[in-house]
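Quick note —
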Amino acid sequence: MHIPFLSTLHRSLVALSALHLGYGPRDTILASYQVTEADLRRYQADWERLKLLRTVE
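Predicted structure written out below.
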């Protein structure tokens, strides 16, 4: 899947959500969204904040 119009931040957030929801093997998801483990670590806190906001609403 080639998604050039999304930033690394956005691809990482979608990948973290996909991993959280169990949408496939980690390596497959990382490749599909063209992110690395380092990208996921970098944006993990942002994803956690978004997840928290969703539970508050």
